[in-house]
Amino acid sequence: MPKTIIISNRLPIKVQRTEEGLAYETSEGGLATGLGSIYKQGHNVWIGWPGTYFEDEAEEKQVHDDLSKQSMLPVFLTESEIRDYYEGFSNETLWPTFHYFSQYAVYEDAYWQAYQTVNQKFCDAVMEAAEPGDTIWIHDYQLLLLPELLREELPKSSIGFFQHIPFPSFEVFRLLPWREQILRGMLGADLIGFHTYDDARHFLSSVSRIVGLNTAQGLIDNGYRHIMVDAFPMGIDYDKYAALADSPETKAKIEEYRAALPDQKIVLSIDRLDYSKGIPQRLQAYELFLKEHPEFLGKVTLSMLVVPSRDQVEKYRQLKETIDELVGRINSSFRTITWNPIQYFYRSFPIEELSALYCVADIALVTPMRDGMNLVCKEFIASKLDHKGVLILSEMAGASRELADAILINPNDLGQIVRSLHEALTMPEEEQMLRMEHMQDLVRRYNIHHWVEIFMNRLEYIKVKQMSMATE
Ligand code: GDG
């Protein structure tokens, strides 16, 4: 019986060492929810790194046995692989390049070597589980070489690849010394998906100019197969966020927050710590807003959550310092005994508290410099049961292609962000509700389950099309 194999760098699980031994916490992330309906069925399996380094083989064996009961197969990485493949090539070479921060990119041969080794390691793990006829779905930029490695082993199988981060224009992508190997790696897939048409278009243009293949109509002809490239904007588990907003736990938190911030307009900002998210620019715009609109002093609070991420990488440490300094400067310049302009949290929150924050926020300020999609803005929309609230959204987020009823801004234009904040804070309720309801219809319909279904159907379709083209 053919099965589906999902592969991502991280398994949807956190392993913790407790006094009673190893404990496993399953991820609540959107991808895990969407794919949960697939990988938990029959013999289907999810393959990935469990996120931690294990010192001895006995512990690895235990993790392997425990996870296999939950349809997961772990790929173990050594300390140097974590450093060079994950923190190195994935996060210091590919991440900055793909987010148009190529000045931050590190071109290090040792990183590239580790990236190839670990992609091969993933291939070996897949080969332990795979049989002819299986469908394989590979996720994201840490595994760009895997489609081709698997194609060599399983020439006839269905291989899908989805990239969760942007694909940059040819002029930026070409800067990578390993550009051709990377593209050839991706071209092992039958279907290559991105969040937006622009990402797909950039990818096709790189394939045409670097590899020299014909890419007409989003179909790449490599002489053996036709590979389809398309946009699949990812959605969220809408019902989950709507139900959370209605839960007694969230309602209790909402009361608590409202009592703590009486008569305040709340502007919400939530991101992982990352330079692609535009956090310093957002703070500068807020500072400018307070200077230009003194009538709002004492009446507006920026609730800013920054979730710790990649703190082993130097650029992220520097970014944290920049944010700390800006928050300190703004709070010390503007605060009064009874009011603080910014509530800044550098930690992650339980999902019920996140939900309560989405509910109480009057404005979500989402201003990434670049973002593949951005799910935070969709979660904010799903949480607004009273249909009130305004989304200010960067044009550089994939989500902006769908959410035309947000106030769209260029994150480099601080004056425009200031004007948008003012517009949002003074927007009549009827207009807020009209815009919000439009966005809710869209986010509800194009949810995570729809995304999974569309991708899987398209993969099936291209396999059938390949066969009919081969016999023509
Ligand atoms: C990559 C791409 C693309 C945040 N703080 C807390 C928390 N979160 C959750 C949010 C949301 C997720 O983290 C962040 O998702 P994003 O989409 O905004 O960003 P990335 O992590 O960069 O994801 C991105 C995505 O992949 C999917 O393809 O949209 O462009 O960069 O779900 O809710 N969750 C909890 N506590 C927190 O404090 N529980």
TrEMBL record:
Domain of life: Bacteria
Reaction catalyzed: D-glucose 6-phosphate + UDP-alpha-D-glucose = alpha,alpha-trehalose 6-phosphate + UDP + H(+)
UniProt keyword annotation of Glycosyltransferase present: yes
GO terms assigned for molecular function: alpha,alpha-trehalose-phosphate synthase (UDP-forming) activity; trehalose-phosphatase activity
Its EC number(s): 2.4.1.15
Glycosyltransferase recorded as keyword: yes
Pathway: Glycan biosynthesis; trehalose biosynthesis
Keywords: Glycosyltransferase, Transferase
Entry's Gene Ontology BP terms: trehalose biosynthetic process
Top enzyme category: transferase
Record-level GO cellular component terms: cytosol
Family: In the C-terminal section; belongs to the trehalose phosphatase family. Belongs to the glycosyltransferase 20 family.
Subunit structure of this chain's protein: Homotetramer.
The protein's name: Alpha,alpha-trehalose-phosphate synthase
Organism this protein belongs to: Rufibacter radiotolerans
